[in-house]
Design goal:
The chain is an alpha/beta fold. The chain is built from twelve helices and eleven strands. It has an eleven-stranded mixed beta sheet, sandwiched between helices. This is Indoleacetamide hydrolase. GO terms for molecular function: catalytic activity. Residues 12-418 form the Amidase domain.
């Protein structure tokens, strides 16, 4: 519509701004909305279109940025008490690339403090709320990014993922999260949590939009893109179904198990060759990954935790300080376990185009218990932060009105194949077309 003149970017941005104003009081996805900056950028996009200039798929399209990522002129708060005035002097590299592609940054989106634990009403900002049920959690620190998409406030956003923070909110909010191969997307200008496990990627309303967003921010070689196989059939592709990671776990809800089996059946009907495979024990890699995450995040924050403890909320302080107990020997063993896990996944991918497993073992939990203390949420995500494999998270159905999701895991640097599989599944189902209930 932008390209054939039926719509202007100014009208599009204005429509989203009005929708944000109407809905975000309930959803709380945004920390700040840059109304003037967005409308000025939209005017520039319209002028470019009028001159026949068309930069990219996202030219003239509004996007939102998780508040761990620098946007020039706006505070990068990390939802931390000590960072409310931390105004960024320049854009993070990923934001620069979005702007160069003509995308319009409309605001900063909610996060758990420093990407640690939440939701927490005692944070610098109130936590974002799940559009499918504001009584339930969003599922991770890229909360605002998922809520903005699920709530119809944007079509695509940027988030980060250190233990599952792109994927957890995708599962719980019914959107698409794409964690790229480790270091495919530059992290300059992004506040770190765990240097060897941090990833930056898109959260979007569809697989195609996530792929288009990743194409702009990623360091793909010339001629390579995440979108290159969109629309292609998956007949004959070999998919390993890692059912062992969740099927026998007492935490797995019957609805998730049924939805996963149904999703695999759908892929089989689309012509994929399904083989059940065994991933290494999840709990072992979870313990190792947690040790790495805690040690690296503590090392980054150690001086601030000592000298400026009031800059942190209580939960984030305790979470970050936990890394003090991880010894160098334990860290080395954890890294060794991570290398072994990566090798085992690589071995499975030698004979399979992709692996599929569950993401979260239940639908979103009620938010109320989190106000008393941090509550464990049963995920199957953090291992792939250690191994660095690309993972596509996407919806596979609903249970009592709450979304469920699966993970499609690919070879390093092969985002195109998991996007191809996810796109085929999305086209064959109606999960991505569902919308949350209207606000009352």
């Amino acid at each position: 519509m932008l390209r054939d003149g039926r719509l202007t970017s100014v009208a599009l941005v204005d429509a989203y701004l009005r929708r944000i104003e109407a809905r975000d009081g309930a959803y709380r996805a945004f920390y700040v909305v840059d109304r003037e900056g967005a409308l000025a950028a939209a005017e520039e996009a319209d002028a470019a279109f009028a001159e026949g200039v068309d930069i990219s798929h996202l030219h003239g399209i509004p996007v939102g940025i998780k508040d761990l990522i620098d946007v020039s002129g706006l505070a990068t708060t990390a939802n931390a008490p000590g960072r409310k005035g931390a105004v960024a002097e320049k854009d993070a590299e990923v934001v620069r690339r979005l702007r160069d592609a003509g995308a319009i940054v409309i605001g900063k989106l909610a996060t758990y403090e420093w990407g640690t634990v939440g939701p927490d009403n005692r944070g610098a900002f109130p936590p974002a709320r799940n559009p499918w049920s504001i009584e339930h959690i969003t599922g991770g620190s890229s909360s605002g990014s998922a809520v903005a998409v699920a709530g119809g406030l944007l079509r695509t956003t940027l988030g980060t993922d250190t233990g599952g923070s792109l994927r957890g909110p995708a599962f719980y909010c019914g959107v698409v999260g794409l964690k790229p191969t480790f270091d495919l997307v530059p992290r300059s200008g992004v506040l770190p949590m765990s240097d060897s496990m941090d990833h930056v990627g898109p959260m979007s309303a569809s697989v195609a939009e996530a792929a288009a967003t990743l194409d702009i921010i990623a360091d793909f070689p010339p001629g390579v893109s995440a979108s290159e196989k969109l629309g292609r059939p998956i007949s004959g592709m070999r998919i390993g179904y890692a059912r062992n990671w969740f099927a026998r776990d007492s935490q797995t809800s019957p609805a998730v198990l049924s939805a996963m089996d149904t999703a695999i059946s759908t892929l089989s009907q689309l012509g994929a060759i399904i083989e059940e495979v065994e991933l290494p024990d999840y709990y072992s890699i979870e313990v190792a990954a947690a040790a790495i995450l805690h040690k690296e995040s503590f090392d980054y924050h150690a001086q601030s935790l000592r000298d400026r403890p009031d800059d942190f909320g209580r939960r984030a302080f305790l979470s970050l300080a936990a890394g003090l107990t991880v010894t160098e020997d334990e860290l080395a063993k954890a890294r060794g376990a991570g290398e072994l896990f990566r090798a085992e996944v690589d071995k499975l991918l030698l004979s399979h185009d992709a692996l599929i497993t569950a993401g979260a073992l239940t639908t979103a939990l009620l938010a109320a218990p989190f106000e008393k203390e941090a509550v464990w949420t049963p995920m199957r995500t953090i291992g792939f932060n250690v191994s660095g494999h690309p993972v596509l998270a996407m919806p596979i159905g609903f249970d009592n009105g709450l979304p469920m999701g699966m993970q499609i895991v690919g070879k390093h640097w092969d985002e195109a194949t998991i996007v191809q599989i996810g796109d085929a599944f999305e086209r064959a189902t109606d999960h991505a077309l569902q919308r949350p209930p209207a606000l009352t």
